[in-house]
Specification:
Elements: E1 22-26, E2 38-42, E3 61-62, H1 83-91, E4 99-101, E5 116-123, H2 129-137, E6 143-145, E7 148-158, H3 162-179, E8 182-188, H4 194-208, E9 214-219, E10 222-224, H5 226-235, E11 246-248, E12 250-251, E13 279-280, E14 284-288, H6 289-299, H7 308-318, E15 324-325, E16 329-330, H8 346-351, E17 354-356, H9 360-370, H10 378-386
Parallel strand pairs: 5-7, 5-9, 7-8, 11-15, 16-17
Antiparallel strand pairs: 1-2, 1-3, 4-8, 6-7, 9-14, 10-17, 11-14, 12-13
The structure holds 2-acetamido-2-deoxy-beta-D-glucopyranose (5 copies).
One 2-acetamido-2-deoxy-beta-D-glucopyranose binds near residues 69 and 71.
Length: about 400
């Protein structure tokens, strides 16, 4: 919750959830190409992937398109709900979409994935090209830090329709060719589809990267001090990712917004219960590979709630696990106590894990400033040590 993200025209392309484990793998040519070749595989028992003849290293798992659930219109009060909510209810059950871009070898294969200490999983919609470019050069750079690997993946849907959709897909395809860091599925990348995006990623992870130790799951408009994250995770007693960890900006006692004007409006028709479980703000949170797989498992039997971070909390609750607060994660931004102090003083950011809402240019600048060997942090260090809440080591 509390995030800003472009909501676009809602595409009515629909896909049917196949209850069975059988699905279709086809050779990808174009999502609208009628001449696709199909073959059936049971993917639980057969992880065979088909290499695309037209795109390098691209694999596609596909299901027949998900049908609109007409019975949703029978829910009481349906006709008075906003169109976006109605649309959500019609397609709420759809959980499988064809992959347009994949990087199945991102983690080096199932077993090698244990070599990845921190996987950065960044929600990015197709238009956010500048943000991706800056992240690739700054905190999301793939690298070895303190002897362990950091890897990056952007997760995306599609936007718009017709020529515009094609154009944006082409952009991602070009980026993919250069960087190999995008997972894209063919569903509308809207605010209320973020949970779907999250669940699709977890499914991908289970298939391709199940042994990654830790993940940072977040948005593309945050400043993340990924060096500090690795240091912090390495300092944990259990730092091999096999124990529960879910940490970030903890939100407790939140309730669904019942006013239809709210961006996060959740009417009783979507969720009856008047409370949300504890969860961490979706701008960015850290979790262990173990916890990611548990969440994925739980998600299969929990109806989709369109608010992705709350939904993660629901999955944790069902597994009997709790999210915890990390004071270094400021997904609501943070406030400097005095107007005499510069909120962009790099000395603050040197000590934090994550701050929400940064412009690409500010991310670029800040990343370089905190790595400047000549940076002196005497005075502001003092302020930091007074504010335990700010220092990530607390
Ligand atoms: C395809 O990918 C492989 C390795 O992933 C690379 O060696 C090869 O050059 C690529 N081919 C093309 C045509 O991009
Ligand atoms: C909606 O409800 C009506 C009346 O109960 C029923 O006749 C109809 O089949 C329902 N429609 C769907 C799509 O379930
Ligand atoms: C369709 O919507 C109705 C009414 O909300 C619901 O009872 C039913 O389970 C839904 N069907 C599917 C396949 O999700
Ligand atoms: C989610 O994406 C699907 C597939 O594009 C679309 O049919 C549905 O309307 C989207 N849902 C929302 C709430 O935007
Ligand atoms: C998934 O959850 C079910 C219970 O819902 C449990 O029996 C199973 O062991 C879990 N699998 C994993 C891999 O956690």
């Amino acid at each position: 919750m509390f995030r800003i993200s472009g909501t676009r025209n809602i595409k009515s392309g629909t896909f049917l959830l196949l209850g069975s484990l059988i699905f279709v793998v086809y050779f990808y040519k174009d999502s609208t190409d009628p001449n696709t070749i199909s073959l059936q595989v049971d993917w639980r028992n057969n992880h065979e992937r088909i290499k695309s003849p037209t795109k390098n290293n691209t694999y596609v798992y596909s299901w027949p398109s998900c049908q609109q659930n007409m019975s949703a219109a029978n829910i009481s009060g349906f006709s008075s709900l906003p169109a976006g909510i109605q649309n959500f209810l019609y397609y709420r059950h759809c959980r499988h979409f064809p992959m347009l871009l994949d990087v199945p070898d991102k983690c080096g294969g199932v077993d090698k994935s244990a070599d990845i200490f921190l996987l950065l999983v960044i929600k990015s919609s197709p238009v956010n090209y500048e943000r991706r470019e800056v992240l690739r050069k700054t905190w999301a750079k793939e690298r070895l830090h303190n002897g362990v690997w950091i890897r990056r993946i952007f997760i995306s849907g599609t936007m718009d329709s017709g020529f515009e959709k094609k154009r944006l897909n082409k952009l991602l395809e070009l980026e993919q060719r250069e960087y190999n860091d995008i997972l894209q599925w063919d569903f509308s990348d809207t605010l209320f589809n973020l949970t779907l995006k999250q669940v699709l990623f977890l499914e991908w992870m289970e298939r391709n990267c199940p042994k990654a130790r830790f993940l940072l799951n977040g948005d593309d408009d945050v400043f993340a001090n990924t060096d500090n994250m690795v240091d912090y995770l390495q300092s944990l007693k259990d730092n091999d990712g096999s124990k529960h960890l879910f940490s970030g900006h903890l939100i407790q006692n939140a309730v669904p917004k019942r006013g239809s004007q709210s961006k996060y409006f959740i009417p009783v028709q979507v969720q009856e219960s008047d409370s949300y479980p504890p969860y961490c703000g979706g701008g960015g949170f850290l979790l262990s590979g173990h916890t990611a797989l548990v969440i994925h498992n739980m998600s299969q039997s929990i109806t989709i709630l369109p608010i992705d971070d709350v939904y993660m909390g629901m999955c944790l609750a069902k597994a009997g696990l709790s999210p915890v607060s990390h004071m270094g994660v400021k997904t609501l931004g943070w406030y400097i106590p005095s107007s005499k102090l510069d909120a962009h003083d790099p000395c603050y950011y040197k000590e934090l894990l994550l701050v929400h809402r940064f412009l690409p240019s500010h991310i670029y600048l800040m990343w370089h400033r905190i790595h400047d060997p000549n940076l002196k942090c005497g005075a502001s260090k003092k302020i930091l040590s007074q504010d335990k809440a700010v220092n990530y080591k607390w």
